[in-house]
C-alpha cells in the first residue's frame, strides 16, 4: 500500500508539472534530492560507525547485559504473555537498548527478529498478537537518551550546536512512550473485556398452540 501511495504521489507530481510547464524544475529537484541523499548518507556513516563500535564495546564489556537486566522487569510488565525464557525477550531487550542510544539502524534488525519470535507464539498467524502490537508501539515511540542519527544530520549540515536537541528529544520521546504504553494497556483491557463478554443470544418465541 505504501508503494502505491508513493507511486501515485510521483505520478501526480509529474503530471502537474507537465500541465503547468515546470517539468524541468521537477527533473532538477529529483537530481538535487538524489545528490543530497547521497551526501547525507556519507555524513552519517562516520557517526553511525562510531556508535556501532561503541555498542560493540558495550556488548563485549557487559554493559548491554546490565541495561537489559535493568529493563527486564519493565519488559515482563509490558509483555506478560511472553514466557521469560523465550528468545523474543532477548531480542526485545536488545531492541530497546539500541533505541535508548538512538541507534535506529541497529535496533531495526533486533526488532525484526523479535517480531519473528513473537510470531511463533501467535495463535492466529494472520493477525498481529498483543505482544507484537506492544513491540511496534514501543519501537516507534521509544525513549531516546542520545539522538545519534539526528545529531549526525545536524553535524552534516554544520549546525552550531548539534547536541542541543538532546534534552527536548528526551522529553518528547518520554511523553510519546508513555502515551504508547497507556494506549497499549487500554487496548489490551478492551480486547480482554470484549473476549470475556458472552455473545447475546436471541430468545426465540414459542410457537402458538392452535386448537
Automatic annotation (TrEMBL):
InterPro entries hit by this protein: Gate_dom
- Which domain of life does the protein's organism represent? Bacteria
Domain annotation Nucleoside transporter/FeoB GTPase Gate: ranges: 42-150
Query: Mind listing the UniProt keywords for this protein, alphabetically?
Result: Membrane, Transmembrane, Transmembrane helix
Entry keyword annotation includes Heme: no
Q: Where are the transmembrane segments?
A: 33-51, 133-153, 165-183
In its UniProt entry, what is this protein called? Spore maturation protein A
